[in-house]
Amino acid sequence: MTNHIIITISRQYGSGGRLIGEKLAEALGIPYYDKELITMAAEQSGFSREIFERMDEKASSSLLYTLSINPGMAGGLTGVADLPLNDKVFLIQNNIIKQLADKGSCVIVGRCADYILKEYPNCINIFICSDMADRIRRITSVYGVSLSNAEREIQRYDKRRANYYSFYTHTKWGIATNYDLCLNSGIIGIDASVQVIKAYVEGRKAFLAK
Amino acid sequence: MTNHIIITISRQYGSGGRLIGEKLAEALGIPYYDKELITMAAEQSGFSREIFERMDEKASSSLLYTLSINPGMAGGLTGVADLPLNDKVFLIQNNIIKQLADKGSCVIVGRCADYILKEYPNCINIFICSDMADRIRRITSVYGVSLSNAEREIQRYDKRRANYYSFYTHTKWGIATNYDLCLNSGIIGIDASVQVIKAYVEGRKAFLAK
């Protein structure tokens, strides 16, 4: 086992989790994967990029096929042909996430990466949340969402991410014990959040170096 | 509003939360309150210390009285006389926790302090968890619990703390969004956990200093 570290980031919508992931990767000098996973999945699978964008972090609407889904089977993408499109997308991204984790240190945002890599002892799982008022401030100023739509938009995205997570992992999104570190980024902001995660990474590296 | 900081620590049994709290208080040079709350509650109330020890972090067994309980009423301990003993203990400790928070910076472990102080903007709420294997290792070596009883003992304490928390706060124990920082202490250990919390405290102090 090499001593490289994979950091997965789950994030509430508007919590700044994506930006924290980007800045953390930059500070640690390691690659960062978020939307990049879509491009890679499209390239490797031969499916169009539009399909991955449309299905990104959405749970399957068909319960019928899901009983046989096991992330472990995604290695060679066997059995994928008969599955609903969302599940194909999940399994293809599952495969890519494992390839990236095998290759070296990186930061991966979303897409149940914490669950997909749960057998990797060198994986650090982070959950970023923030209070509603801070998230509204963030998405209205950064994403240009109107104030009147902001809270509804946050609830819609959070619900989608929570459904996606529980659908494929059979556990709940945002339960502290599912992560190594959960952080409310709202009061302290992006840069201080990066510092907190870096302190955890240092502790983990010290453990791995023993 | 002064710039002092109150740090509350909720902790799974065997996660080392108490020791992390102690070391954090020492590192920050501020007082630490855990079992000390029992002594203070006994002194202020005139009840015996044994009552507080027996009722400590236990939910009331009587649902009948709880509908009228509101932590806000505990200020002058009015209306306490007619309540079940657990609720009296909760309200007396509630009162003491608020007195301590008003007085200056400190670390308070357990007893729903995060909820009791939820209107305090200078309060940092931490949840410490750890994997079962690490917790078993900890309570067998530090508390001398036998290996055969360890897992059952952990489940018993966790259930009691979760019940106590949900009974008095009407929310769930260990949900990431209820805290500023949740930390799995198991892999990185006590000292590195203290460093992570210190990094968060630095971020919060910088925000308060703005």
Summarize the structure.
Chain A has 210 residues and is α/β, with parallel strands linked by helices. Chain A has helices spanning 17-28, 36-45, 49-55, 85-103, 113-116, 132-141, 147-169, 185-209, and strands spanning 6-11, 32-33, 106-109, 123-129, 181-184. Chain A has a five-stranded parallel sheet, with helices on both faces.
Please give the share of residues in helix of chain A.
Answer: 40-55%
State the separation between the terminal residues of chain A, measured CA to CA.
Answer: 13 Å
Beta-strand percentage range of chain A? 5-15%
Q: How many individual domains of chain A? A: 1
CATH topology of chain A: Rossmann fold
Mean pLDDT over the full residue set of chain A: 84
Gyration radius over CA of chain A: 17 Å
Could you give the count of β-strands of chain A?
Answer: 5
- Main pleated-sheet profile of chain A: 5 strands, parallel
Q: How does this model look, in words?
A:
- The structure is a homodimer of 210-residue chains.
- Chain A is α/β, with parallel strands linked by helices and 210 residues long.
- Chain A is 52% helix and 11% strand.
- Chain A is built from eight helices and five strands, in the order βαβαααβαβααβα.
- In chain A, strands 2-3-1-4-5 form a five-stranded parallel beta sheet, sandwiched between helices.
- In chain A, helix 1 (17-28) runs parallel beside helix 8 and helix 2 (36-45) packs across helix 3.
- The longest helix of chain A is centred in the C-terminal third of the chain and has 25 residues, at 185-209.
- The A-B interface holds A 12, 127, 129, 174-177, 179-184, 187-189, 192-193, 195-196, 198-200, 202-204, 206-207 and B 12, 127, 129, 174-177, 179-184, 187-189, 192-193, 195-196, 198-200, 202-204, 206-207.
- Strand 5 (181-184) of chain A pairs antiparallel with strand 5 of chain B.
